[in-house]
Design goal:
Blueprint lengths: L2 H14 L3 H22 L5 H16 L6 H9 L3
Amino acid sequence: MDLKTRKFDFIQEFFKLQSEEAILRFEQLLKEEKKKLENNSFKPMTMEEFHKRIDASIEDSKNGRLIEVTELLAEIETWS
């Protein structure tokens, strides 16, 4: 049985579930699996990339391309 068929069969059986506890356990399992995938896809930057970002940040600061924390917080408040 291929993966697509297995997923479809699983979904059909999942829809038949009436137990809220069982659904909660599946939700938790899915959340854990998604977290594992995110952690596995994380790629740390190299030291060269790190230093380039530092240099760019210093250059931005010298050229006034920055925002005060209070301004940023005020802007974030307008997002929701």
